[in-house]
Amino acid sequence: MKTILYRKRQSLKNHRKMVSINEQSDEKECKTHVRKSFAYIVSNVTAEKEIIEAPEIHIKKSFDTKRHQEKFSFRVKGAFYIKEHKAIYKVDFCHTLRIELEWKDKTFSPNKSVTLT
Fold first, then answer.
1. 62: helix, coil or strand?
2. Gap between the Cα atoms of 62 and 27, Å rounded
3. Cα separations (Å) of 97 from 22, 61, 74, 111?
4. Is the whole-model pTM more than 0.70?
5. Are 21 and 35 contacting, i.e. CB atoms less than 8 angstroms apart?
6. Residue 117 — very low, low, confident or very high, per pLDDT cuts 50/70/90?
7. Dihedral of the CA atoms 60, 63, 69, 71 (nearest 10)?
8. Cα–Cα distance for residue pair 109/56, rounded to 1 Å
9. Over the stretch 1-22, which tens digit does the pLDDT of each residue have?
C-alpha cells in the first residue's frame, strides 16, 4: 500500500515558498519512507550583483544491521539570480531528499551482480 502527502506553503509577505512530498509504501520486502522538500526565499537585489558561490551538496548514507534499516539523505543549498522586467531578484533555495528503508527480511538490499567491478 502506498500513501502520498503533498503540502504547499507560501508566504507572500516574507517572499517564501515551500513544497514538500511525503511518500510511504509498505511492500512485501520492505517499508519505504521518502521525503522531498523544496524551499525558496526571494529577495530584492540592487544593481550590484554579489558573486554567488557554488551550491553546497551534503550526502549521508547509513546502515543499521540490527534494525535492518538503510537511510539516505541528500541536500543541496544555493542561490541564483532572476530578472523580471527591470528588477533583479536573488533566490536562495534548499532541496532535500531523505529515504528510509526498513527491510522485513534479515537480508539487506539485493546483492550486486558479480560481473560488476
1. strand
2. 21
3. 10, 12, 5, 24
4. yes
5. yes
6. very low
7. 10
8. 29
9. 788 889 999 888 888 999 999 9
